[in-house]
Amino acid sequence: MASAGKERPLPPALPLATLIGRELRAGGSERPTLRYGHAGFAKRGEDYFLVKPDCLRVPGDPSTAFSVFAVFDGHNGVSAAVYSKEHLLEHVMSALPPDIGRDDWLQALPRALVAGFVKADIDFQRKGEVSGTTATLVVVDGFTVTVASVGDSRCILDTQGGEVQLLTVDHRLEENAEERERVTASGGEVGRLNLFGGQEVGPLRCWPGGLCLSRSIGDMDVGEFIVPIPHVKQVKLSNVGGRLIIASDGIWDALPSEAAANACRGLPAELAAKLVVKQALKKSGLKDDTTCVVVDIIPSNYRLTSPQLSPKRNQIKIKSLLFGRRSHSSIGKLGAKSASFGSVEELFEEGSAMLEERYAIFTIAMIHYVTC
């Protein structure tokens, strides 16, 4: 976030419907073209990803299309990651009210994502398996991007100008003081592995269980302190589009967000994903599963560069399209809010980790679960 001395007054918040209507009246398109690619290498074979570019809010109606991309990084086995890949989206969709318009659907989506994550966690734990998984689920509807995440997989947004915005929060106890406070305030313990002789080693973990993460799906053996409630962020890009990079921690442990974005600028999405993985492996070797999904959100009135053009000309044209100024993030509460930051409108963010502040969200999720 900007320092206090550089803060500027924010413009009044605008509802999502106003933003969409304003863009349509100005001649912008709400249906950009998506180009995407994925790459990865397996060390343990516990990473999974999901690419569903052809989802429909209303069956048979192509005007209601949206796309979903996700990365799941399993631990203690693959069961939780496989289950989440196959069922998390259906749990989210079941929490959305039927027969509502697009504006209402987008406004309901953040709460539905919370409900879907909770329902997926409950259903998976009923299987009695002890594995767990991170989950970063990204929904792209026109120029509106909604991201829900637990764990330390990450989604970044690269817009015009070459600056990068983080759309997720890492739930590693070592790096997230707010999550450590939540766990200890709830009665859990946070500490390192204690060897004989009192020597402490390794990252901070939650006890019982010893998990390094404070949020995940699954992990029924680590107690109630590890929660499935995701951090949710929703932004609306300007009509110049942008690039999303979604990846597991095998990438982010090797490359900072900016380095990953810089590594693949000007390249088509499929090649970009491969290059991010290659750069991560070059930096640190194959220490963990590495999975990367790249999604380019391209205005539909932009004529994509012909494959016959030279790589250099391709890079120049795509680079001029995809990257702009950074949008500084800000914390919001329930309800769709927006603040204009250059080329990105921030519509919603719920990132608080304190249980008393999140209790209302969890209750809503459970109500959805019981009634669906």
Automatic annotation (TrEMBL):
<dbReference type="GO" id="GO:0046872">
    <property type="term" value="F:metal ion binding"/>
</dbReference>
<protein>
    <recommendedName>
        <fullName>protein-serine/threonine phosphatase</fullName>
        <ecNumber>3.1.3.16</ecNumber>
    </recommendedName>
</protein>
<comment type="similarity">
    <text>Belongs to the PP2C family.</text>
</comment>
<keyword id="KW-0378">Hydrolase</keyword>
<dbReference type="InterPro" id="IPR001932">
    <property type="entry name" value="PPM-type_phosphatase-like_dom"/>
</dbReference>
<keyword id="KW-0464">Manganese</keyword>
<dbReference type="Pfam" id="PF00481">
    <property type="entry name" value="PP2C"/>
</dbReference>
<dbReference type="GO" id="GO:0004722">
    <property type="term" value="F:protein serine/threonine phosphatase activity"/>
</dbReference>
<keyword id="KW-0479">Metal-binding</keyword>
<keyword id="KW-0460">Magnesium</keyword>
<keyword id="KW-0904">Protein phosphatase</keyword>
<dbReference type="InterPro" id="IPR015655">
    <property type="entry name" value="PP2C"/>
</dbReference>
<feature type="domain" description="PPM-type phosphatase">
    <location>
        <begin position="28"/>
        <end position="297"/>
    </location>
</feature>
